[in-house]
Amino acid sequence: MEHAIKTVILVVGAMVSYFLGGWSILLTTLLILNIFDYLTGIAANWGNLSSKRGLKGIIKKCVMWVWIVVANLLYRILAQQGFDLSQIIPDGVVILFIINEITSLGENSIKLGINVPEPIKKALEIMKGDKK
Question: Tell me, what's the pLDDT at 131?
């Protein structure tokens, strides 16, 4: 039984590594920000929690990771065709999602009443498209 469990963990780990293009500090950062954003989102909306909204948040996080897999597969296809872009596509997608998570974390912090520095507030307004 122990051997079967280790084998399953090995196979799942190999598949995740293949589809994500290996593990990097960018993916670690995104994973941590996903967790922080989800937890601060729960805290910021404490009085209005619903399992439907929570599930939607989890699905959105999963779809982020699907896009990272798609970007990595696109990179692999282009590399196989002779266009070696050196992980630019997958890393760029991850960086955009990191920026998105930081934005959401900032918005949740403001909802929680945390005193966010003015330059960060202005950056959040710009990212949201508010004109102030």
Answer: 55
**Per the confidence metrics, is the pTM higher than 0.90?**
no
Contact predicate 98/33, CB 8 Å: yes
Distance in angstroms (rounded) separating the CA atoms of residues 27 and 15: 15
Q: What is the DSSP string of 111-125?
A: HTT----HHHHHHHH
Residues 69, 97, 95, 108: is their CA dihedral positive or negative? negative
Q: Where in the chain are the domains?
A: 2-128
The dihedral through the CA atoms of 12, 17, 19, 25 has a sign that is positive
Please write the tens of the pLDDT for every residue from 69-80: 999 999 999 988
- 20 and 68 in contact (C-beta within 8 Å)? yes
DSSP state of 15: H
Average pLDDT over residues 27-55: 90
